[in-house]
């Protein structure tokens, strides 16, 4: 991996190794099917095998890694069923959240959301896909926060790891400007205090994945599993 974690030696290493590896998996730096070696990773970052082993166990429990008997630990392929389930849950939850936000969307919030969209477009212009995906997540978190439902967003984060992996692929493969235009439509619904329009824009936005998924899965079948 190109990036190396800066470990805080005053706290447990295992959670830090886990966070580093999980981030690399979600960003696609560790590709599906890649083999993970406790010894090699431990040597690379200067820790013993034990914290690396603990990180592997957590990744396996999340479905991001898998143990193959007699062969080792490997990065799991992206689960299409997990992606579709997470998308369905997100649509149900975030459609309700946006209606809640519509009742409290003041000028300060609208201005903040407009700035976020400007930053997303700037990231796309720089071809900085990782930054765009980070800003995309922050946009949705800001909406959950505006609804005073940060805890709900935390629950969603725990459900959408496979979806996040796919987002990094589709953001590179397709025109991410469509997504920023959809964000702008959501904000316009809020600006007009039109809860129905804001909800419809959110639903259309979260269904965008359904349009991209078949092409991505057929062009890169080695990355996916049912």
UniProtKB/TrEMBL annotation:
<protein>
    <submittedName>
        <fullName>GntR family transcriptional regulator</fullName>
    </submittedName>
</protein>
<keyword id="KW-0614">Plasmid</keyword>
<dbReference type="InterPro" id="IPR008920">
    <property type="entry name" value="TF_FadR/GntR_C"/>
</dbReference>
<dbReference type="InterPro" id="IPR000524">
    <property type="entry name" value="Tscrpt_reg_HTH_GntR"/>
</dbReference>
<dbReference type="Pfam" id="PF07729">
    <property type="entry name" value="FCD"/>
</dbReference>
<dbReference type="GO" id="GO:0003700">
    <property type="term" value="F:DNA-binding transcription factor activity"/>
</dbReference>
<keyword id="KW-0805">Transcription regulation</keyword>
<dbReference type="GO" id="GO:0003677">
    <property type="term" value="F:DNA binding"/>
</dbReference>
<dbReference type="InterPro" id="IPR036388">
    <property type="entry name" value="WH-like_DNA-bd_sf"/>
</dbReference>
<keyword id="KW-0238">DNA-binding</keyword>
<dbReference type="InterPro" id="IPR036390">
    <property type="entry name" value="WH_DNA-bd_sf"/>
</dbReference>
<keyword id="KW-0804">Transcription</keyword>
<feature type="domain" description="HTH gntR-type">
    <location>
        <begin position="11"/>
        <end position="78"/>
    </location>
</feature>
<dbReference type="Pfam" id="PF00392">
    <property type="entry name" value="GntR"/>
</dbReference>
<dbReference type="InterPro" id="IPR011711">
    <property type="entry name" value="GntR_C"/>
</dbReference>
